[in-house]
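ENTRY TYPE: paired fold submission
RECORD: A
CONTENT: sequence, then structure tokens
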Amino acid sequence: MDYFGRVAGFVKNGWKNVVDRLRAYFKKLLFPLWLFPIKLLTYTTYYILKFIIKLLLAFFGLILDCIVFPFKSLKNFLKSIVYIAVATYLFFSLLVIGDYMTRQYGDWDKFFCGAGVSSKLKKSVVRIVGGNSEGSGFFVTDNQIITNFHVIDGEPSPKIIFEDGRFITPVKIIGDKDADLALLQTEDKYPDLVYSLPDDLKFSENEPLISAGYPLGTDLTGKATVVTGNFIDFRKSKASPVGYIQTNLSLVPGMSGGPLIDQCGSVVGVNTQSLAGLSLFITAADVKVLIPGFTDQAIEKINVDPSASPEEAVKAFYTYLKARRMQDGFNLLSKKYLEKTNFTEWTARFTNILDVEIFKSEKFDNAKALGINTDDTAFVKFGTKNWVDGEAEWHYYEGTWQTVQEDGVYKMLKSKIKEVTEPGWDWFYE
């Protein structure tokens, strides 16, 4: 007997039958074309219902067979045992899969929504460089960034650093110190980076959550760090106007102010603090409620007076550089100084300066010995934090600025500034 020939003939005839049936089906479905939408809907509904009915009939038939079938013979009895064993295995397998899906995604509706979540998260999180602290933040509108208040506390001109290394200074800062929240407003808009705040939050038990930020601030280079964990519970403190989400994921300094999101990429909280591996996040719903009441009352203000003295003028000059208020700094250059520069050339010198720290600005006591007018010269010590190729570099300087009064304001005339390499601790405090 030619078994191979019979099999080949069966496959050939079977394939031809399938092709003929598909051809007839598509012909029936597509023509006339004007009936295609209605046919697609009705045919789809028909075949789905037909499949469900057949499946249910087969299921009930199997149950009936398992009840009646075994008593006809020993062979049938053994078959039924096998059927029941397979059905039991499949049933408990579904329970295990369901439990896994719940633990992995929280809810079934979150199973298919995780594509591209981590990628957007890394692009959307920004570094926030404050005075005494550094952290992270994210856009809640196209020109507003939320972060923790403690990140920018005492700093009137924090810097916002994007994933690609660009940095800007916010044009306005408001916040709520008691809630540990601050809102930084940018001049330009960034609609692609926005995470909208929800009105309400609901989590399933042990629902997976994702957080991101820049650990150790500018001390650690690279892209934002993404960490995962699970929802534990909601927490409330009498000392705080906000509620918290408790998770088992780990946060480190520098990640404060970053977003906490669910598997679908919806923001649910703001990174706040971590204790013994249990991290707390301000609920995004509370953040949304509090933002309209934010003020600038607790925000550090820039307060300088270049008309008071040469040393105050020098302090104002470097304060404006620190705040990236380049036009104000440029306005403190004297007419004679402006003979050798212009705004574009002058601002280009400070492109990479992320921060300026003024350690000393005082009257220069040795001016007479050097043949300099004591009344218009100031001695200054300062350091600059430069952002170069994604890394922070500190440089330290000292020297004198000779000033001249113009229109009642002391302006920069001539400088003798030198870089101090590897200064000792006494250099900062002498």
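RECORD: B
CONTENT: sequence, then structure tokens
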Amino acid sequence: MKRKIYKKLIKWKENEDRKPLMLLGARQVGKTWIMQHFGKQEYKKVAYVNCDDEPRMKQLFDLDYDIDRILMTLQAITGVKVTPGDTLIVFDEIQEVPRGLHSLKYFCEKAPMYHVMVAGSLLGVTLGKGESFPVGKVDMLSMYPMDYEEFLYATGHEGWIDILHSKDWTLIETMMPKMVELLRQYYFVGGMPGVVSKFVKNADLQQVRTLQHEILEAYGRDISKHTSASESVRIRQVMGSLPAQLAKENKKFVYGAIRKGSRAKDFELAIQWLLDAGIIYKVNRVNEPKMPLKFYEDFDAFKLFMLDCGLLACMAEAPIDQMLVGNNVFTEFKGMFTEQYVMQQLKAIGFTPYYWSNSKSPSEIDFIIQNGKRVIPIEVKAEENVRARSLSQFVKDNAGLKGLRISMRGYVDQEWLENIPLVAIDAYFE
């Protein structure tokens, strides 16, 4: 399985100022696999330990942070002699040993010659609590579900990626019917590596849906295990409301849609827990399309998205035939899956998406991103009907902007906007 994050891991390894690497991401996005795979490919030895499964890890850091002692104990646990430069040390599920997190400071300061990588399914939650975080002493990378191009790799369509990145828009348009068929599959399967692997192996759609349910159940167990009973209920209510929230024409998150009369104070902590766990993404509104966008962020208005379109489809109980046959997935559901998909691709590329809306009118721009020195307003269209009144007016009202429409249509470059196909997001921004 090919993952784009691999190139970033290579850069980390080759960096002379390398610090211990912290890999952030939700459960089952592939963190454990990529760490082990990277270690096997790029190092002579891998000293891997799962801090949740290995009880001795809880005592390893209790005495002190003496690196020589820690490495000697690690050798006893793993059977691997750790030597500088040719051994990758991996602490998985490190949030289970908070003092282990703090030890990264000493690896950074006193033993930089050792290559250390850590991850955890709820590491973000642990960091959100401010527990033993070695500020300035670690490198950090976020890992997401497989994007559309990684899905193409996995399903044996690597050649299609070369076509997309050629930006031969005429050729791409001729290939669109097949690419759209694969996009339908991606909407349903999503990008969770275990689900994609199972789909590639036997194309059993019911099995795909079963695995998605199992992942959601695993998230539920994490919620129950790591939060109080009352907080657990609120977190589940937020998650459960997402399909209905995203199915609205106006996808702004509404607390009252969770429970009548609810307010921000009732669910703020629940939302933050899901964000820290990497299970949902938050897209805040901006008041002005000006740089830097963060200066114009409105924290009171936002949209919430699921981390993966396949998991969203599972939560919504979207019928398999409506997802995979015909154009229903693009024409029904009020653009829910297409906007979810675009948001995922933007996040995977490394953008922080925002959106804009006008409190005095129904006008809305689906996403706004900052790409270098350019602010780009983005309109998402699931169908071929691409009339973009809001975007057209928005560009007129904000001199110097050029809009981007992401739709089912082929590439078009007009004076005030570009239209790119849904399948070509990554290629466009390379």
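NOTES ON RECORD B: The domain at 5-142 is CATH 3.40.50.300 (Rossmann fold). The two ends are 21 Å apart (CA to CA).
STATUS: closed
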